[in-house]
Amino acid sequence: MQTAWFSKPVAVSVGVTGSIHHLSNTQQAIDLLTTHWRDAGSPKHRSALRACQRATSGDVAPDVARAALVEAAREAHILIE
């Protein structure tokens, strides 16, 4: 497995304090999706996690995973645009 880098970081607000995280690669995204996700288990969350995992194994382009992550973050109301 390898870390797949996004063409542009994804900014999200996490936790009670709303600290801002800039996710630059699939490993950072997987960590957030598996440990601190507000709507864990939703279809978009599962899709983003699966896409990030597939990007780390080279099955999909990193920006496909990024797009799925953006959609999941938007659904969870944590995306900073």
Automatic annotation (TrEMBL):
UniProt-listed InterPro entries: DUF982 (IPR010385)
Pfam families in the cross-refs: DUF982
Protein name: DUF982 domain-containing protein
Species the sequence originates in: Mesorhizobium ciceri biovar biserrulae (strain HAMBI 2942 / LMG 23838 / WSM1271)
Taxonomic lineage: Bacteria, Pseudomonadati, Pseudomonadota, Alphaproteobacteria, Hyphomicrobiales
